UniProtKB/TrEMBL annotation:
Naturally occurring in which organism (per UniProt): Anaerosolibacter carboniphilus
GO biological process, one term: regulation of DNA-templated transcription
Domain (HTH crp-type): residue spans on this chain: 10-55
InterPro entries: HTH_CRP (IPR012318), PfkB_dom (IPR011611), Ribokinase-like (IPR029056), WH-like_DNA-bd_sf (IPR036388), WH_DNA-bd_sf (IPR036390)
Keyword terms: Kinase, Transferase
Enzyme class, spelled out: transferase
Entry protein name: Pseudouridine kinase
EC number(s) per entry: 2.7.1.83
Gene3D superfamilies (alphabetical): 3.40.1190.20, Winged helix-like DNA-binding domain superfamily/Winged helix DNA-binding domain
GO molecular function, one term: DNA binding
Matching SUPFAM superfamilies: Ribokinase-like, Winged helix' DNA-binding domain
């Protein structure tokens, strides 16, 4: 790279939207010679595309929810319509955000596209997610809007008994916002989506960036149905049993039913299907075969986020070019680790810890 090219790259880095005329004026050269330098920088691979998007290290884009989770834990079986002694914890959550944090812990650079309000919770989400290593620069920050919250009560076995999600802020997660970040999304290695975002925004991403591969987390039965008609647009999906039922219309009461649902999704064009069935395990398949992997016996402290860790494990495995069998084992090991800690994201989540658990899976 010539000295002049270095100067130009530096100016673009500071202001990616700078015009050729402003570049020329700043450097005291003509606009046409600024244009030649830019063409050369593109040819040499330092500029990745229009709008002067600088080529940077590989990254995954995650588009989805970021919440504050308020979770109640009880030591004894829940008594409904009564006040149960226990304890309450506040932590960061949101399916997309949880997947992003797990990915960062698995050493994958990750940019999160989500919506956050300008309240105390929003600031907490922004600072702590940034602190954990997620690139939060593309999140939508909305003034006079409340950050979304998720309130859940876990039963004494660590499984969710009931929950309420208050995520109205995502009504503002528009197609225009996604359009404004088009080049960044288009340069991602792959795009993970959750169904917290509005249906038109999901459809926009899957049609606009169709050269990318999409991994889908279906979030909940009520939100999963947003993608019922476009499920074939996703390369990899991980619904739990109930979300798979809502999407396929097939009741899943046995492994055989889960297999039928896998066929349904594969026939729609999905390449890899993972139907998670809590402590029973996973029914998974691709166009070669469909199989079942039983989950190991595990001491569950908090099952919240098991699916998010699983999805992060699938993304990691895909980028490592693992086989389907290796992928499901790595992802299951990641969720087994996740449920062994009170926090939604296990503080010790790492490639090394997951590989250690993987060795113990049958
Ligand atoms: N009680 C449990 N015992 C053992 N393993 C479990 C248990 N719960 C979850 N898992 C593991 O985590 C995987 C994903 O769990 P699950 O089916 O609950 O996903 P999910 O409903 O998407 O989770 P979440 O929405 O809480 O993130 C399971 O396939 C299993 O490997
Ligand atoms: O509708 C939703 N419910 C729950 C979540 C999040 O799921 C996480 C656990 O998988 C939890 O952190 C919650 O915030 C969400 O993003 N949307």
């Amino acid at each position: 790279m010539t000295e002049r090219e270095k100067e130009i790259l530096d100016l673009i880095r500071r202001n990616p939207m700078i015009s050729q005329q402003d570049l020329a004026d700043t450097l005291g050269i003509t606009r046409s010679s600024a244009a030649v330098h830019i063409t050369n920088l593109v040819k040499k691979g330092f500029i990745a595309g229009k709008g002067y998007i600088l080529k940077e290290a590989d990254y995954v884009a995650v588009i989805g929810g970021a919440n504050i989770d308020i979770q109640g834990f009880v030591p004894k079986p829940l008594i409904l319509k009564d006040s149960n002694p226990g304890y309450v914890r506040i932590s960061l959550g949101g399916v997309g955000r949880n997947i992003a944090e797990n990915l960062v812990k698995l050493d994958i650079q990750t940019k999160l596209f989500s919506a956050i309000g300008d309240d105390v919770y929003g600031k907490k989400l922004l600072e702590e997610s940034r602190g954990s290593g997620i690139d939060m620069d593309y999140c939508l920050m909305l003034q006079n809007t409340s950050t979304s919250t998720y309130l859940s009560i876990l039963d004494h076995d660590g499984d969710m008994a009931v929950a309420v999600s208050h995520m109205d802020i995502f009504d503002n997660f528009s197609v225009d916002y996604l359009k404004s970040h088009g080049p960044i999304l288009n340069n991602a290695q792959l795009i993970v989506l959750d169904t917290n975002i509005p249906q038109p925004s999901i459809e926009f991403v899957t049609t606009q960036f169709k050269d990318r591969l999409f991994f889908l987390d279906t979030v909940s039965t009520s939100k999963a149905i947003k993608v019922k008609e476009i499920i074939g647009a996703f390369h990899t999906i991980k619904p739990n049993r109930y979300e798979a039922e809502a999407l396929s219309g097939i009741s899943i009461d046995s492994k055989l039913d889960a297999e039928k649902a896998c066929y349904y999704f594969l026939n729609k064009g999905v390449q890899q299907v993972f139907i998670s069935m809590g402590k029973e395990g996973i029914c998974y398949g691709n166009h070669q075969h469909i199989r079942f992997l039983a989950a190991p016996e595990a001491a569950v402290v908090n099952a919240t986020g098991a699916g998010d860790a699983f999805m992060a494990g699938l993304v990691f495995s895909f980028l490592q070019e693992y086989s389907l069998e290796q992928s499901v084992r790595f992802a299951m090991a990641a969720s087994t680790l996740a449920i062994s800690h009170e926090n939604t994201i296990h503080p010790m989540m790492s490639v090394h810890s997951v590989q250690n658990i993987m060795k113990e899976l049958k």
